[in-house]
């Protein structure tokens, strides 16, 4: 009887354990299904709201552009009544000043309306790993990145002087080919689509529906073009170089061009889109860099700046007075079927230019330059170098710099920081050539300090100096304390 009773108890315990296990599985499935339903409802509600907010914002009005001040668009000058000392006004014989002014405004509009305009789209195939069929509300920085790459492509294939709908034989075909590469379909024929960029972002910790920063987008574009160059012959002649820590290493760019010779058996250099992520201030754009930023947009090699307002990306292509001229991706349009050989291209060109006060620009941005070969790259470096240091400032604090070396040859003190759970802050550092440049550092969130080991003997806590204005910086790091490690109490004055 005792044995039978024990067996009965064992069966009851096993039955109860099985029931509890099945109940937990059911609860988990129910919870997961509920979470999935909540996520889908949330995504649909967010999509509906963004469609409502952005879908009706069709820019039909023309922002007022003053006739007195000149307008710059990616290195091209459109003069006003006061041409200024840097350019001599071009006039058309037989016309008075008002007629000449009207012609230049028309030329400015034709130039602006020829830039590729990538906006939110709705109704495209679902992005892998999600149920999203629109990028409304989250894809604006990706769209800005598409615009700066499209500008580099048109410069590479046609030149800066290309104009949309000019009626030149063959140019419409090239325009459509470029747009097909950006069409929102998950296919190899669209290597720069929103689908392709999101796929490339997953190993970097981003998913569809999340916001992207300008630095991350720079690397995504580089990777996308590298993959596309293996499939498209006409894309092999263009590469993307992303600057490291606000430094353009010329040796790396030259090596990129040399590898192109070896890979393609080509005698000529490949063209390069140089992308330079920078941060020009703390919470707001530092006013000392206003003239530098405007100066860069007057250079022939500049293909624009991707940045915007906080959480609101824009593609800046020019300026007038203290206002930046931009293309805004925050307009939700229907997806275009690019499989049709004669698909319409009008929705990829904005008719109404807009301006933003330069002081409202977010300090985090990426600046782009297009160069055709080594000679053009050297010319670009010389032109850009003249624009980098803020005028009327004590000391030389460019917000990025050029180094004649390769990145592998230069050691950065910031790379020696042994950190846990890093965050990012703006600061000043020295590059391999000893120049101080605006940069970002990874630091621990605890009192903004970090540990640094020197030769395995000394450990010190250092604090990156925030940079409200370049002339306020004394040292690259401030030493907070030097705890004894291995009997050593050496101090660190400056890194």
Q: Report how far apart the termini are.
A: 83 Å
Overall radius of gyration? 27 Å
Helix/strand order? HEEHEHHHHEEHEHEEEEEEHEEEEEE
**Major sheet: size, sense and barrel closure?**
9 strands, mixed
Report the portion of residues in β strands.
15-25%
Helix-strand makeup class: alpha+beta
Question: Quick summary of this structure?
Answer:
The chain is of the alpha+beta class. The protein contains nine helices and 18 strands.
Protein described:
The chain is 33% helix and 20% strand. The chain is an alpha+beta fold and 495 residues long. Strands 1, 2, 4, 6, 7, 8, 9, 11 and 12 form a 9-stranded mixed sheet that branches. A hairpin with a 2-residue loop joins strand 1 and strand 2 (76-78). Helix 3 packs antiparallel against helix 4 (171-182) and helix 5 (194-201) crosses helix 6. It starts with a helix and ends in a 14-residue tail after the last strand. Residues 55-60, 82-96, 412-431 and 435-495 have low confidence and may be disordered.
Q: What structural keywords apply?
A:
alpha+beta, three-stranded antiparallel beta sheet
SSE blueprint:
Elements: H1 2-55, E1 71-73, E2 76-78, H2 97-114, E3 121-122, H3 140-157, H4 171-182, H5 194-201, H6 214-229, E4 238-242, E5 247-249, H7 250-264, E6 271-279, H8 290-296, E7 302-309, E8 312-320, E9 323-327, E10 333-334, E11 354-357, E12 364-371, H9 374-388, E13 401-403, E14 423-430, E15 436-443, E16 450-454, E17 458-464, E18 477-481
Parallel strand pairs: 3-10, 4-6, 5-13
Antiparallel strand pairs: 1-2, 1-8, 6-12, 7-8, 7-12, 8-9, 9-11, 14-15, 16-17, 17-18
Helix pairs in contact: 3-4, 3-6, 5-6
